[in-house]
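Lecture 7 notes: from sequence to structure.
We start with the chain below.
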Amino acid sequence: QVQLVESGGGLVQPGGSLRLSCAASGRLHSIYVMGWYRQAPGKQRELVAHITSGGNTNYADSVKGRFIISRDSAKNTVYLQMNSLKAEDTAVYYCNYHGVFAYWGQGTQVTVSS
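Predicted structure tokens for the same chain:
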């Protein structure tokens, strides 16, 4: 089993920034993909960004150039730095860890509004 603890969501004005954190614990594997998905009301859950155990990253086109995913391997923690936030970034953000099996965090709300 893998446990994921997310933090960092909240309310921010358009153009602002937030940083999400996701700490993984439990039966972790040396080869994994870890990242963030989001789900807005009435929409399907979509990939935002992920990072592999090898350090490769992948971003949704809608967040390229604005969001940065990074990790602290010693802390088994992944971060999502979100800059230049837009109203359309409003969603529940879920951390995902995929080693042998896939695990999800509980979700954290990000609201971009003036």
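Points to note: The radius of gyration is 13 Å. The mean pLDDT is 96.
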